[in-house]
Amino acid sequence: MTVAASVMPATVTSLPQGTQLPSATSSASTATSGTLTESDFLTLLTTQLENQDPLNPQSPSDFAAELAQFSTASGVQTLNSTLGAGSGVQAANLVGKNVAVSGNALILASGSAQGAFNLSAAATDVQVAITNSSGSVVDVVDLGAMGAGNQNFSWNGQTLAGTTASAGTYSYTVKATSASSANTVTATPYAVVPVTSVVLGGQSGPTLDLGGGLSPVALSAVQEVY
Asked: What is the reported pTM?
């Protein structure tokens, strides 16, 4: 006995305006920009789902793969936008390094502390007084004559009493004596602290998280890198 195959009649469905594939104009616009936006992707995906063969629908794994591909591309695009001006890369390279920022904190760790300051003019003698959390002077470092501009110094943690100071955060003030009594030398202190991490994507650019209990600062606040 011969059984004739049943043939389903072919049907053509016209998509209503608004659900069709992107027009030539929108396609040209996309081609010109060279970028598939999130809106373009959702339009194509919706159209694909509405017009798939009901007898052979797209498998869930293929659908998930398409979403994952777009999510990855979108994430890369966001990262590129964040790092676009190069400031993000520059900030990321500072992690693990010491930077000089506004402040007079002095972090003593492993028997050494580093500080920095700016002199408005040359000085015949510069002294740094180091104080603890109680405001008591624990040591005075005599740096001698120094020129104008950015300067730095180190402290070995030894106190005036001849003992070794405990690790932690101290403060310091700079006294600079001018070569001429008619002139005054202004010393602007900087805290030299490690960059522990970077926060990207802020409205004012990358933000640096600092060690020693200091508040985060913008990348533009860095005076020097050590």
From this structure: 0.59
